[in-house]
């Protein structure tokens, strides 16, 4: 167990970084020693609410050369994450990597290899795992309250008019699964303990009218590794409030987000509602960064492997790549990818 405070650098001083810095500052086991971004003014704006003695960098190599930096939170645009992971792992830095961690299978494997070779701790940015509802559902499934699962669905619908430009170009965004839908895929895998065996996906021609280069609404049927069936849907445009929905149906109960129906409570004629906070907003102010970042620091201090390290996140990303491939080629795709 390491005793001294872990020196943290935040790289990419934008929206998500504002959630990260708040959580790092609140954790007594670490100290924010550096912030970096394209522009110094973004770093200064990120630091403004805090009285921190943090260095400012606009060059990633110089940030990595800082001997006070033990860990880096990668908060830059999507297309940079994998290459930055390779560099930072090579420099021996522990990594909190925002999702998507990579935009292609080749990039993903290179990042995994670099992390394996260096032995650094990684946590991928699937912050929804720390939402109270997700933790409750995981426990409900783990104690077998739903019985044998035979259906598991996940949906992520989120339109933000002010999404940054890099999320609108195919080369820097990836796809709607990689922009947002991956959160729901990760959550249903985490809660259910199931793995995806095969997907068959379709894309709707919507996106250009919102300024996106790619189709922004996709739906898929899923075959899980225990024979269960399910659906994944995602849209990052459209006239809809934010929706993050998980459904689980089993031989002894069913869950639709907060609504539960359990065989062990026979008097219940209807679903009853769990009194816990769900994943109800796309706003990073409401994301569970406190839980995620406390976990990251704890993993570094204790040397424990994270339940959402890069290798685990790689499974979510392979599913996203398979969904994109399926929609593109109009055929089912089996997992894991070769
Ligand atoms: N886990 C979650 O729930 C969640 C939520 C939101 C976002 N995210 C992820 O976080 C990442 C960032 O998203 P965001 O919404 O925070 O975007 P954002 O507000 O645009 O912030 C991105 C930051 O990266 C900086 N940057 C851009 N290019 C750079 C480069 N070449 N080198 C260094 N810095 C660079 C920008 O620079 P300047 O400001 O210095 O010009 C900006 O401050 C995305 O991958 C997104 O998917 C995750």
Global shape: globular
The number of helices is 10
| Strand-pairing-aware structural class | alpha/beta
Please tell me the overall pLDDT: 96
Counting structural domains, the number is: 2
Each distinct ligand:
NADP nicotinamide-adenine-dinucleotide phosphate
Largest sheet: 9 strands, mixed
CATH topology of the largest domain: Dihydrodipicolinate Reductase, domain 2
What is the annotated CATH architecture of the largest domain? Answer: 2-Layer Sandwich
Helix coverage percent? 25-40%
Number of strands: 15
Please give a handful of descriptors for the protein shown.
10 helices; Dihydrodipicolinate Reductase, domain 2; 9-stranded mixed β-sheet; 6-stranded parallel β-sheet; alpha/beta; 24% strand; Rossmann fold; 34% helix; 338 residues; binds NADP nicotinamide-adenine-dinucleotide phosphate
3D architecture notes:
34% of the residues lie in helices and 24% in strands. With 338 residues, the protein is of the alpha/beta class. It has two domains: 6-127 and 289-309, Rossmann fold (3-Layer(aba) Sandwich); 128-284 and 317-334, Dihydrodipicolinate Reductase, domain 2, CATH 3.30.360.10. The strands form two sheets. The chain has a nine-stranded mixed beta sheet with strand order 14-13-12-11-7-10-9-8-15. A six-stranded parallel beta sheet has the order 3-2-1-4-5-6, with helices on both faces. A hairpin with a 4-residue loop joins strand 9 and strand 10. The protein is globular. It starts with 5 loop residues before the first strand and ends with a strand. The relative contact order is 0.16. The structure holds NADP nicotinamide-adenine-dinucleotide phosphate (NAP). NADP nicotinamide-adenine-dinucleotide phosphate binds next to helix 1.
């Amino acid at each position: 167990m390491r005793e001294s405070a872990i020196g943290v650098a935040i790289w990419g001083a934008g929206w998500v970084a504002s959630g990260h810095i708040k959580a790092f500052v609140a954790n007594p086991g670490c100290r924010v020693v550096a912030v970096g971004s394209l522009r110094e003014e973004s770093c200064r704006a990120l630091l403004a609410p805090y009285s921190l003695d943090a260095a400012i960098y606009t060059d990633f190599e110089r940030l990595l050369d800082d001997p006070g930096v033990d860990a880096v939170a990668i908060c830059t645009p999507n297309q940079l994450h994998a290459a930055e992971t390779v560099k930072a792992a090579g420099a021996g830095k522990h990594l909190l990597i925002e999702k998507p961690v990579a935009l292609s299978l080749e990039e993903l494997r290179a990042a995994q290899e670099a992390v394996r070779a260096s032995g650094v701790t990684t946590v991928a940015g699937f912050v929804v795992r720390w939402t109270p509802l997700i933790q409750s559902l995981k426990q409900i499934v783990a104690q077998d309250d739903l019985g044998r699962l035979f259906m598991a669905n996940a949906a992520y619908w989120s339109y933000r008019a002010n999404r940054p430009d890099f999320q609108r170009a195919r080369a820097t965004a990836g796809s709607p699964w990689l922009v947002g839908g991956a959160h729901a895929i990760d959550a249903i895998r985490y809660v259910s303990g199931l793995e995806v065996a095969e997907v068959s996906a379709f894309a709707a021609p919507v996106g250009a009218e919102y300024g996106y280069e790619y189709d922004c609404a996709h739906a898929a049927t899923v075959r899980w590794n225990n024979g269960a069936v399910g659906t994944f849907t995602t849209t990052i445009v459209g006239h809809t409030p934010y929706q993050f929905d998980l459904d689980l149906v089993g031989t002894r109960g069913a869950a639709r987000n907060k609504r539960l129906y359990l065989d062990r409570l026979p008097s219940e004629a209807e679903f009853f509602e769990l009194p816990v906070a769900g994943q109800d907003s796309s706003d990073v102010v409401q994301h569970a960064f406190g839980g995620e970042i406390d976990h990251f620091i704890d993993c570094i201090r204790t040397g424990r492997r994270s339940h959402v390290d890069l290798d685990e996140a790689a499974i979510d990303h392979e599913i996203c790549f398979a969904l994109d491939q399926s929609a593109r080629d109009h055929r089912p795709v089996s997992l894991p990818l070769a």
